[in-house]
Automatic annotation (TrEMBL):
Residues 38-287 form the Mannitol dehydrogenase N-terminal domain. This is Mannitol-1-phosphate 5-dehydrogenase. The keyword Oxidoreductase applies. It comes from Aerosakkonema funiforme FACHB-1375. InterPro entries: 6-PGluconate_DH-like_C_sf (IPR008927), 6PGD_dom2 (IPR013328), Mannitol_DH (IPR000669), Mannitol_DH/Oxidoreductase (IPR050988), Mannitol_DH_C (IPR013118), Mannitol_DH_CS (IPR023027), Mannitol_DH_N (IPR013131), NAD(P)-bd_dom_sf (IPR036291).
Amino acid sequence: MNSNISTNSAIKLNQASLSRLPNNVQIPKYDRTQITNGIVHIGVGGFHRAHQALYLDNYFHQNPGSEWGICGVGLLEFDKRMRDALQSQDCLYTLVERSLEGDNAKVIGAITKYLFAPDNRQAVIDAMAKPECKIVTLTITEGGYYYIEGSGEFDANHPTIQYDLQHPDEPIGVYGFLTAALDRRRQQGIAPFTVLSCDNLQGNGHIAQKMLTAFAQMRDSDLGNWIAENVAFPNCMVDRITPATTPADIKMVTEQFGIDDAFPVVAEPFLQWVVEDNFCAGRPNWESVGVQMTNDVHPYEMMKIRLLNASHLLIGYFGTLVGYTYVHEAMADPLIRQAVDRLMDEVTPTLQPVPGIDLDNYKKTLIERFANPKIRDQLPRLCLNSSAKIPKFILGSLRDALQQGSSIDYMSLAIAAWFRYLNGKDDRGNSIPIDDPMADTLTQIAISSGSDPQPLLSVSEIFGDLPQSSRFVEAVSDRLRSLYELGAKETLTRF
């Protein structure tokens, strides 16, 4: 390793400087000018760059001159920083895989173009309407689907949806862009693209299909029917822990690898992608780079969402209440680690058998991944947008466990910890910033109702009919009372 290269001698990352980068950095060995963009990706964040874009980068090393390059798209004002970084670096960026064995750096070249929608909305529609575009992939977060949790219906009254229905040529939301491009393809006799959701939603393809079709029907019933009949929406399961990029990561890339990169990404070594083989306009031969293509993603999805994502929430709330900053710190606390173990054991009976996976081994691997100190994953990332995550990651298991008559102790504990977290103060009285689209409503209820969970449980768009189960309500009440009276540590000890 080149330990501590000074910032002044670091090489600014771009296409022209690739050959000057140090030998300990892998660089694209294929000709990026020979790649056409068959994929448009909406929501280029750390996860996409450490996951789908890496798989395609590996693919291009085996298949140069490919038609499966990525045109990245940012829809939100928040995406300006990504636009500025990627456009100044020829869309190149550094991915560093971090483990106790060491850090490996690789420059990824799979994204060859980046469009920032607020700069030019038509350019984004054009990119998806072109015949070369065969797949549109999405990482728009759980909350980006305008899906009402309690009912499973489309949130047609959301201001973004209403705006896009009234301004079909100048959309701001994901469905407005997708329907504008699909409508143009339909009118020009071009076959549609596949829509591939890569977000942590159970049945993410089904949800994308239902929501997009509902939106399109409202805009134009013929278009809605055409989409329903012709567009493919495969389900997929994605997995790789990818913390948000920090100033310390940027500095580490400069000092260890001599690269001046405005927006690198760090990730754990583990990587998994399971995709339903259902595409209407062709796809890359992803199997050649380790993607699992299957006719049924459901068991893999349930395993990952119910074990990994649910555990993340429990770690996030308890770690925050105790006063930790990082996931690995929380996992070094034997009480939290034991609670995670027990939550996973409680969820396991709700899972289907997963082809080729040993569940005990998978759970053991999860604990090791969470405890990886090199990743420096921050607890607020795990707690982000919890109102969209709780129903998807925990409530399904809870419903199944109630039906089976099996244990709900730790799932109820996770819900109670969220309610206590929403109070906005940890056990030492320090403020907790709550980052959630429903934050105003939820924090108000949490503060006024304190140790009584009923008012939060009555938020039907999150909990639906679950509060009809007295067993569930009693379990949450008992644990929430304990969290307020004894604190997080004592409550974990009590269990």
